[in-house]
Specification:
The complex is a heterodimer of chains A (304) and B (273).
Chain A lengths: L2 H4 L13 H16 L5 E2 L13 H10 L5 E6 L6 H14 L2 E2 L8 E5 L12 E5 L13 H9 L4 H14 L10 E3 L3 E3 L9 H4 L5 E6 L4 E5 L5 E3 L27 E5 L5 E5 L2 H11 L11 E2 L2 E2 L2
Helix pairs in contact in A: 2-3
Chain B lengths: L23 E10 L2 E11 L4 E6 L5 H8 L7 E6 L14 H11 E4 L3 H4 L6 H11 L5 H14 L16 H13 L5 E5 L7 H18 L2 E5 L3 H7 L2 E6 L2 E7 H6 L4 H10 L1
Parallel strand pairs in B: 3-7, 3-8, 5-6, 6-7
Antiparallel strand pairs in B: 1-2, 1-4, 8-9
The chains are: A alpha/beta (304), B alpha/beta (273).
Chain lengths: 304, 273
Amino acid sequence: MSLATLTRPWAATSYGFLDASAKRELRRKMLKAIAVPGCQMPYASREVPMARGWGTGGLQVTLTLVNPRSTIKVIDQGADDGVNAASIRRFISRVSGATETWDTLAASIVQSRHRIPEETLREDQVLVLQVPNPEPLRGVEPNMSIARQMHADADYGRLWLTLYEQIVRKGRIMQGAAYPSLVNGRHVMTPSPIPRWDVPKLNMAKHLTFLSAGREKRLHAVPPYTRVEPLVFSDRPYRVEDHAELVCRRSGIAGYFMNEIPQDQGGSVFEVSDSNLGIKAIRQAGGESVEIGATWYEDGEYSA
Amino acid sequence: MSMDMTMVPAALLPPQLMQTPALLTMTGLTRHYGEVRALLDVDVTVYPGEVLGIVGESGSGKSTLLRMMNLEDTPDRGEYRLRLPGREDGNLFALGRYERRMLCAHHIGIVYQNPHLGLLMRHSSSGNVAERLLIAGERSFEVLRSKARDALDASEFPLSRMDARPAELSGGMQQRVQLAKAIALEPALLLLDEPTTGLDVSVQALVLDTLKRLQRDRNITMVLVSHDLGVIRTMADRVLVMRHGAVVEQGLADQVFQDPQHPYTQQLVHAKV
């Protein structure tokens, strides 16, 4: 018997690309993040074959979670066929043997940038969001050490102040994406660059959500069935984007978050942002038997 | 009101305010910064409704004392008690960070000499006042707005500029915003750290006027630190003279200014008057 028979065959990379110690470190930080919902956990962000700022944080979390039985869906701005989304999905599948999918219902891990799918996620699914800036206090407190103290003190007065001044100056809250939200009544997080439309989906959701920033080397989590409350004044209710009335020009479905496509002759048309939902609706209309799951929004109204 | 001049004077009582239990009691405060002694066995008592003036030269420990009153600093030794409704008498220096911050937000207002310390320069003036209310848990926009307006109005700030940024305002106006922020939650104690230093004399008079009126209308307890004896004389009921981190003399304002006992106070008063 030689030593070679006892070792695994040589491979250029570890399983799931990241080495074992990196994955162990990430798993620990992910567990910590789940234990303290919304609290940012620093982690040793590794090099992945992708530039920082292109989803390296989300990718590292996904690579840690993935196994050969996983089914991976990756979306970029709601679409599965974007170059970035397609490359990440192919890469994950190549290094782990996981199955690729576009269908939200079939996925066990959904890695996303900017959007949460419109179809309601289940308890057995994990959502991984790529986050550019995990620090909700960055806009009001540039000093990171002081910002951490403010988190420890639950000192979020200045976030409220920002919203107050938006109403004073513009008559309404102007915060579009990354709307600051209180998680589990304790930590305020910025829920990545998802639009206001998607924030209610995180509240008491059945699925686990990780939000990971590779460049900033921090991740936080929203465990299943956790309260996520956007910061609002008691006499100024939270408003999602006015997309309830918009109709998708390709699939004809309405009541979902839409992409606006400006036209040469002025004006604009709309397409449903969750492209796979649009594709399934078109197929269904064409007579194919396609399963469309329950959605968070029905007729443009959020139904919890 | 006419007085019966033939009436036999009653036995001397301590002044009215000293008959009530003290609002603030600090005992045995000692603080060293490395080799530098900032405070040595300082005792301070403040009674409800009075204005206590603290005078002394630069480096005498006045500001350190005020920072401790605002719980921004802790002494090496010493205790600090505030009699507040619904709060048992405990040493405030023993409180945790969070409790300290909440106590300061609710019960202690402060006006700094330098408005940059007390104000968020990039936010609006009304927002600066609203922040105090937000920290205290107010979540209604309309209530925030009206309370901020009331507080700014009480400190005689022109309401047409309530949404201007403090950076765009004059020094006197900035002090008024600080004052509005300090009184927004009707604090038990108002700390004033050289509030009029650096303002020109006419503006100084206006700000003092506002303070005086607020004190009369709302009966706020104030601690006023200043090196300007004129300011102390105008405002204070009682005076505490500090030198080299120790209290060298204290008493009623008139008494201290008319009949200073300690050589340093004599020097101070004569240099001024």
